[in-house]
Design goal:
Radius of gyration: 20 Å
Number of helices: 10
CATH class of the largest domain: Mainly Beta
Shape: globular
Number of domains: 2
Strand order of the largest sheet: 8-5-2-7-1-9
Structural class: alpha+beta
CATH architecture of the largest domain: Sandwich
Distance between the termini: 37 Å
Mean pLDDT: 89
Largest sheet: 6 strands, mixed
Low-confidence stretches: 143-148
Order of helices and strands: EEEEEEEEHHHHHHHHHHE
């Protein structure tokens, strides 16, 4: 995958305040929109693109785009401008799709904005953009042959239900298979067992909430299926090596804009 001509320009995270509609405009660079909160629709070149949490949209230079209607809903999204390569035209990324793993992309966006805010040189920012586009490219591809396989269906179910208490025996029982059998499938495909996969996806869910919301830690604990707050703190510290507050503070330097 050749991203050598990539040139990072600038990026940020937008959060609406009150009524908002995306302005109508024409830009002279490529732009990526990655939605983290709310729903809205963008029109580009006469075509409407509905955007929801986890949506990705690549906007083209020289083509007019703008919002369709005013919304009172809180909207939040990352925006990144770059030149030098057309990932959609080169067939590296789909133009408009939903992320399978939003946390990985959110973390890469936070890292890119952090390093940009710290004044790192252009070569570093171009490299970070390269990594982000590789991840977006990977998540935009559809693997029809394996999409319906058992291990992928179980993994997706765990990810969707990461906001509730989960353990390996209950997941196995839900799908009607022996726990040892499912664990072998996960180890073969991912190198880790069912229990470790549950922990990993639950951690991703927690870290996404830490990065993308202002919810208090007690509420995040509840939204991750923990009725015991102390157990939640212990779980996170054990797997991450730092507290939730320390993790959230690690990516503090952001270029944000709001309206």
């Amino acid at each position: 995958m050749n991203f050598d001509s990539l040139h990072y320009i600038y990026a940020g995270k937008f959060t609406s305040r009150g009524q908002w509609i995306h302005p109508t405009r024409v830009i002279d660079s490529h732009e990526i929109i990655i939605v983290t909160e709310g729903s809205f629709t963008l029109m580009e070149g006469g075509r409407a693109y509905p955007l929801d949490v986890g949506s990705v949209l690549f906007l083209e230079p020289g083509v007019e785009h703008g919002g369709v209607e005013v919304t009172d809903e809180k909207i939040s999204f990352y925006w990144l401008h770059f030149n030098g390569l057309d990932p959609v035209g080169e067939g590296l990324c789909a133009k408009h799709y939903i992320l399978r793993e939003p946390y990985h992309v959110s973390l890469l966006c936070r890292q890119l904005l952090h390093y940009a805010g710290e004044g790192f040189e252009q070569e570093v920012l171009d490299s970070l953009l390269h990594v982000l586009l590789c991840e977006l490219s990977s998540q935009s591809r559809q693997d029809d042959e394996s999409e319906g396989s058992l291990v992928l269906r179980i993994r997706e179910w765990i990810r969707i239900n990461a906001d509730r208490p989960l353990n390996a025996p209950d997941v196995s029982a839900h799908f009607g298979y022996n726990e040892d059998y499912i664990t072998r499938l996960f180890k073969k495909r991912y190198g880790i067992g069912l229990k470790s996969m549950i922990n990993e996806l639950k951690l991703n869910h927690v870290k996404r909430l830490l990065l993308e919301t202002d919810l208090p830690l007690t509420e995040i604990a509840g939204q991750a299926g923990f009725s015991d707050y102390k157990l939640f703190l212990k779980f996170f510290k054990y797997h991450e090596g730092l507290t939730p507050s320390e993790f959230k503070a690690a990516y503090y330097s952001l270029h944000t804009n709001n309206h």
